[in-house]
Amino acid sequence: MKGHDQGPLVGCHNSAQGGVHNALIEAKSLGATASQLFTSNQKQWRGKKISREEVAKWEEAKADSGVQVVISHDGYLINLGSHVDELLEKSRKAFIEEIERCQALDLDFLNFHPGTATDKNPERCLDTIVDSLLSFAPLFDKNQKLKLVLETTAGQGNTVGHTFEHLAYILQNCHHKVPIGICIDTCHIFAAGYDIRTPHAWDKTLKEFDEIVGLKHLDCMHLNDSLKGLASRVDRHSCLGYGEIGIEAFKFVMQDKRLKHLPKCLETPEKEARWEDEIQILKDFYYHKH
């Protein structure tokens, strides 16, 4: 992703209420250069197709927005690693519909949580996720730019994807058939036990990620502070600098040559966050104004 020659790619999760194009209008109002959205109701199985009219509104809003990278986040009900046949079938169908919506809008990334081992068997869950992803390969035959990105998880409950080994296993078994990479969520990796509070800690974590997964597979990031402590395995986001991670970690992210060019979206708490201010803070870090 060529971000380093056109400034930082930063934004937040934008509301698509009233039409997907509204997410871009909101992103522009916040000074964002990247945006994340739900292309459909994230709490329902059934998603609607994107109409030609919606595509036209989207393209017009995008041209006017200054947003350079757009990421979709899949729905919360989807579990590509479910051991229950009916739920797995529904999850795969919903994910296919999500891919189709992303492709209709010509999005860059589709971010998704790997899955949950509801039978408490993570190995079986990981294999089921791989099978699910491989089943989507025909949808990528047309050489579209869309890339799937596995989001790191906090390890709450029986979720998989909270270790770099989990991510590497999924990636190694399907990246040759499906375009796939990784999205690091700062709150999630911290809660999962990877320290990122200081430049030294970040460096150690990135080296470990590179050895196990490969930094070449890291495509984007979610920037969130964490309400809970290191290795808490609890997924609770906090505003930048107001949690257990601290503001220095985000300064590092915006200045380290391995990370600074990556698209980054805030998912800080909606009621407390001032996204416009946080986006400006990240831009200032990038330009070394702090």
Describe this structure in words.
There is one protein chain. Strand 2, helix 2 and strand 3 (69-73) form a beta-alpha-beta unit. This protein is an alpha/beta fold. Helix 1 runs parallel beside helix 2 (52-65), helix 4 (122-135) packs parallel to helix 5 and helix 8 packs across helix 9. The strands form three sheets. Strands 1-2-3-4-6-8-9-12 form an eight-stranded parallel β-barrel, surrounded by five helices. Strands 5-7 form a two-stranded antiparallel ribbon. A two-stranded antiparallel sheet has the order 10-11. The chain has nine helices and twelve strands. The mean pLDDT is 95. It is globular, with a radius of gyration of 18 Å. The two termini are 25 Å apart. It has one domain: Alpha-Beta Barrel (TIM Barrel), CATH 3.20.20.
